[in-house]
Amino acid sequence: MTLKAGTILEGTVINITNFGAFVDVEGKTGLVHISEVADTFVKDIKDYLKEQDKVKVKVLAVDDGGKISLSIKQASIPQKSSKPIDIDWTKNTKTKQQQQQQGGADFEDRLSKFLKDSEERFQDLKRHQEAKGHGGYRKGSY
Predict the structure, then answer these.
(1) Are residues 23 and 64 in the same domain?
(2) Which residues on neighbouring strands pair with residue 25, listed in sequence order?
(3) Which tens digit of pLDDT belongs to each residue from 40-72?
(4) Is residue 80 one of the residues assigned to a domain?
(5) What does the alpha-carbon distance between residue 91 and residue 2 come to, in Å, rounded to a whole number?
(6) Which residues span the domain enclosing 26?
(7) Residue 97 and residue 104: Cα distance in Å, rounded?
């Protein structure tokens, strides 16, 4: 099988470096960059892989020079099906009146409350600074 982008194969880790792991796939060596090892931040690749580990990889690219870019994390992502998922949009929808009766607030109400509180805090801070005589930086006071 020829290696082409998008193909998912099984390979063997043959060498580990600080920046990634070299994986043998169908007799050819490709690189899994450290950013393509896991969905989370990988500080030390040796926490995730060892030499001779069998791994499932996705071929990201094969350049003209023969360099093969691989990904472990993209190989484990389930492939999207061609059929879209069905969503019941009528479920859990509440009117604004129902939300207010249940004590919930919609986004606009929460945003206006936040802005009001922020402005009040800012004014308090300003008054406090002025009371101390530190109205901010003064020109020529260096």
Answers:
(1) yes
(2) 28
(3) 898 999 999 999 999 999 999 988 888 999 999
(4) no
(5) 48
(6) 8-71
(7) 10
Contact yes or no for 60/33 (Cβ under 8 A)? no
Helix or strand (DSSP H, E) at 101: helix 96-101
How confident is the model over 71-80, as pLDDT tens digits?
Answer: 999 888 665 5
- Rg over alpha carbons for the chain, rounded to the nearest Å, is 28
86 is a domain residue: no
Answer yes or no: is 84 within a domain: no
The rounded distance, in Å, linking the Cα atoms of 29 and 17 is: 14
Q: How confident is the model at residue 23 (pLDDT cuts 50, 70, 90)?
A: very high
- d(C-alpha 106, C-alpha 2), whole Å: 55
Cβ within 8 Å of residue 35, ≥6 positions away: 42
List the one residue out of 33, 38, 29, 36 whose CA is nearest residue 18: 33
User: What is the DSSP code string of 20-78?
Assistant: EEEEEETTEEEEEEGGGS-SS--S-GGGT--TT-EEEEEEEEE-TT--EEEESTTTSSP
Q: Does a structural domain hold residue 91?
A: no
Strand partners, 12: 24, 54
Same domain as 14, residue 59:
yes
